[in-house]
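Teaching note: in complex prediction, the entire set of molecules is handled at once rather than each chain in isolation. The prompt given to students was simply: 'Predict the structure of this complex.' The entities are:
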Amino acid sequence: MLELTLDLGPRTYPIKIAAGLLRSPELPAQIRGAQALVVTNQTIAPLYLDPVLKTLATAGIDADSLTLPDGEQHKTLATLKTIFDQLIARHHHRDTTLIALGGGVIGDLTGFAAACYQRGVRFIQLPTTLLAQVDSSVGGKTAVNHPHGKNLIGAFHQPAAVLIDPDTLATLPPREYAAGLAEVIKYGLIADADFFEWLEQNMPGLLTRHPPLIAHAIATSCHTKAQIVAADETEQNRRALLNLGHTFGHAIEAAQNYRHWLHGEAVAAGLVLAARLSTKLGHLSQTGDPIQRITHLLAQANLPTALPPEIPPTKILNHMHLDKKVQSGQLHLVLLKKIGQAFTTPNFDPQKLIETLQEPQPTKNLP
Amino acid sequence: MLELTLDLGPRTYPIKIAAGLLRSPELPAQIRGAQALVVTNQTIAPLYLDPVLKTLATAGIDADSLTLPDGEQHKTLATLKTIFDQLIARHHHRDTTLIALGGGVIGDLTGFAAACYQRGVRFIQLPTTLLAQVDSSVGGKTAVNHPHGKNLIGAFHQPAAVLIDPDTLATLPPREYAAGLAEVIKYGLIADADFFEWLEQNMPGLLTRHPPLIAHAIATSCHTKAQIVAADETEQNRRALLNLGHTFGHAIEAAQNYRHWLHGEAVAAGLVLAARLSTKLGHLSQTGDPIQRITHLLAQANLPTALPPEIPPTKILNHMHLDKKVQSGQLHLVLLKKIGQAFTTPNFDPQKLIETLQEPQPTKNLP
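The expected output is the structure of the full assembly:
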């Protein structure tokens, strides 16, 4: 078993990575009281709910479960209320534990419910998608969406443990697997040039889902995320680096009404746009052709590397400004100095942003 | 101006008490960004919204406002959503400040909205009822109700400041003023025998709302609350003392479907019941006749000192157990050792609780 620690003083917790973790005593060992509620969705429940409930029952924990409909469109206050209803109907106390069994949507919903139920109860992340395993399950960001914006209502509420069972990736559709790889590649770009090189060498093996390669990719990604979150839990500064590619990505998702590309796919295109803008602004040297390397690696992972052709660049720009208006009042960009070193800046020439969005992009815009 | 500090490390904040504070530069001085949203209700808005908006405008802050319907029945997730809708419609950023202008319901709703909007923004309490000024505005407990229980969904989210303007009490209906006095008397019982004596000597003057007496009562109450919260922000142990009289009080409110007695009135009867049970269990000596003193002081303040006659004691008992089931799994009681010293215990003879509820109560059960 690989084990990392997210060091947050009294909120420090372990991130454990091992095949079969869903079925191991590590899971009940993380529960303190006699109650638990497993929250999952209709896609994951037939695959993994029974093993999880059985693992808990073997340890004497008679857990309740709640199976939600699958999809980002259900990440709402209304769905959150169904979790509270279930907790209250089943008389869950302050010492209950919520268990998020699923991808990012389930983790965000369950974590936010845990943040608010009786002003905060314990919760455990059991992420079942690559994206959740390398990114959303770690760091304590929980939220629901508002009709006018993603993650506008939420809390910082750290899990008590993140238990990652890479065996669950065996059932993940290829497109979702690729979407998770976008976030993996992101960590290389932000802070770890060696890891980026490792990904360049091992992408074919990762695409065959070779277990030791997957475990290394997850552990390295979680290590970088844990370091950054430990330094800046509530995103006052450094944590914003994790949004590399996301300002573009969110705008793409919003322009598509969240209906076409997956989050990771939009981030992939966003990573290329961020790199191209970084070059245009003079931050990222063309020596070694970093844009070509980034584009090639993402394309190898079956990810888009350019804007969706059906969306006019002006629409993307409008969504970036709309997002900015609500989120922070100022458009902060995360840019690259080189592969392995990102930085944030509020100062940039807006004309260069427009040029980046408008210039022809001789690259893939899957799917 | 009286000024106290609630010492919570990075979340430390001032509690300021002064006539006219709503109209003073102290209010805009607590705002950091350029945005603010004042949340109030239909009763308070005609009285104090304009002065508050004017005070902010004078300092260059063009605040938005939201006026909610008045009443505990509106302390729901649905009302919370209207606050989020307004924040988003008006493009409030992460550096916005929410201002709660009203009583406990407005404070709890606004504080919880501030806890969740963009995962936490700044908020200021401007309490306008005695109950909010001495109790609910201090300490960071925020919540909404669920159809099956009060305050089941919420957060610990400390205000950036509590600004108490006792002038607002001039417009408070007598019954609500009395309800606030129940919490004031509670502080004497929990931790301050001298203050209890002072209240015995000054209740007639307090009932005439004599400003220096009110200011002393508010400051002393806030001082005790601040001490207890500083020692135990998230109610792991000592903070539970603040629930003296509340287990009984909540059961009375629930048995009445929250329709008859005010919260403070139910707490008043609960204080007498807690004292009587304390005596019956052998914790509170009858020397000096403390029950008579407590009953007399509450009755002087025009508060009930016995169960509502129309509610059968068995119904109260059922609600206490129902509350227990959801809240903590075990019925913890807050009891008295003497006037000025409360303690909590999970261990008591349940038969004594039943006797306490069932024995004839030769005392007032207003209103």
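Point out the following to students. The longest helix of chain A spans residues 211-231. The two ends of chain A are 35 Å apart (CA to CA).
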